[in-house]
């Protein structure tokens, strides 16, 4: 735990992290996510059109904010589904910080770049249409799954999730998301994404009211300060996480805690693909064969391709029997 200063203090200045913080003047809790190499690797690997890349970048930042709030050992999944040109966006976060994501898109139905943006964010309604946003927590070693679902009824991802917290969790929340392809001072260019989330827990607000502190005014001031954060600041490769928090909240007294490091990593493997093939209907497996009898399976997340010869497919079928 450390206080933030203009010079950077003890807070990390690196990339690909989720950083918890509190505002000492009000007790408001928050998270800051900054991603550089991780989001650039994921978006470059898939070569999506710019509006889709921005949407997935924002999803990666949003999932990082949500996952870093939870104490779990397993997988946190954030999935948006709709009837628009982007039918699905999925992001997985492992408890060890491994992250992966992909989008399913019909490029022929995409609107023009400008039409797919609302202010500084991807326009969810134009890109995904009617649908829902679901988040699932799979705890390792247990069959129980925690899940929440919210309708895609806002123009932005941040708006959709704020609505969920307000209606379902009754927790005052404020969100800022951004994703962009930017150029750093050293001349390098790449995709970056960032996100800020603050929450005021009911018990904390009540405790401050009893102490004679106007918690509502504290919260509103914090929200106004956070709302001043631009997409450019969230994605600036030359502005550290510490510097951004100080720029926004130095008058409130901002304190940061241990960061969560993020890494571009996929859980797919040849063994997992083989296991899926053995459980499929034989007719469906047969329909997947190429002219030489082999099968090629490509991971949607990382684009890694797994090749099985005709003989290997036969062995899998024999083992399945």
TrEMBL record:
One of its GO terms (cellular component) is cytoplasm. One of its GO terms (biological process) is protein refolding. The keyword ATP-binding does not apply. GO terms for molecular function: protein folding chaperone; unfolded protein binding. InterPro entries: Heat_shock_Hsp33, Heat_shock_Hsp33_C, Heat_shock_Hsp33_N, Hsp33_helix_hairpin_bin_dom_sf. Pfam families: HSP33 (PF01430). CDD domains: Hsp33. It comes from the Bacteria. PANTHER family: 33 KDA CHAPERONIN. This is Molecular chaperone Hsp33. It comes from Limimonas halophila. The lineage of its organism: Bacteria, Pseudomonadati, Pseudomonadota, Alphaproteobacteria, Rhodospirillales.
């Amino acid at each position: 735990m450390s206080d933030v200063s203009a010079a950077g203090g003890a807070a990390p200045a690196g990339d690909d992290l989720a950083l918890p913080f509190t505002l000492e003047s009000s007790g408001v809790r928050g998270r800051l996510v900054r991603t550089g190499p991780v989001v650039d690797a994921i978006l470059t690997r898939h070569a999506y059109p710019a509006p889709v890349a921005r949407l997935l970048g924002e999803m990666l930042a949003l999932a990082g904010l949500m996952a870093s709030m939870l104490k779990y050992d397993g997988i946190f999944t954030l999935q948006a589904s709709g009837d628009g040109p982007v039918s699905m966006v999925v992001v997985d976060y492992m408890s060890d910080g491994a992250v992966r994501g992909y989008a399913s898109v019909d490029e022929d139905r995409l609107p023009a770049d400008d039409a797919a943006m609302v202010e500084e964010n991807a326009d969810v309604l134009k890109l995904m249409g009617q649908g829902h946003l679901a988040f699932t927590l799979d705890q390792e070693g247990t069959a129980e799954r925690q899940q929440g679902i919210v309708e895609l009824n806002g123009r932005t991802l941040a708006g959709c999730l704020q609505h969920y917290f307000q209606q379902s969790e009754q927790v005052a929340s404020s969100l800022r998301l951004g994703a962009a392809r930017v150029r750093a001072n050293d001349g390098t260019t790449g995709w970056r994404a960032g996100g800020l989330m603050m929450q005021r827990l009911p018990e904390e607000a009540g405790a401050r009211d009893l102490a004679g502190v106007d918690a509502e005014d504290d919260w509103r001031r914090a929200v106004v300060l956070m709302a001043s954060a631009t997409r450019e600041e969230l994605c600036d490769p030359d502005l550290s996480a510490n510097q951004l928090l100080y720029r926004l909240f130095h008058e409130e007294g901002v304190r940061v805690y241990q960061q969560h490091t993020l890494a571009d990593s996929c859980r797919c493997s040849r063994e997992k693909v083989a296991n899926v093939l053995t459980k499929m209907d034989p007719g469906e497996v047969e329909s997947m064969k190429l002219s030489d009898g082999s099968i090629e399976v490509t991971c949607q997340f990382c684009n890694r391709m797994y090749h099985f010869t005709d003989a290997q497919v036969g062995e899998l079928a024999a083992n399945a029997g």
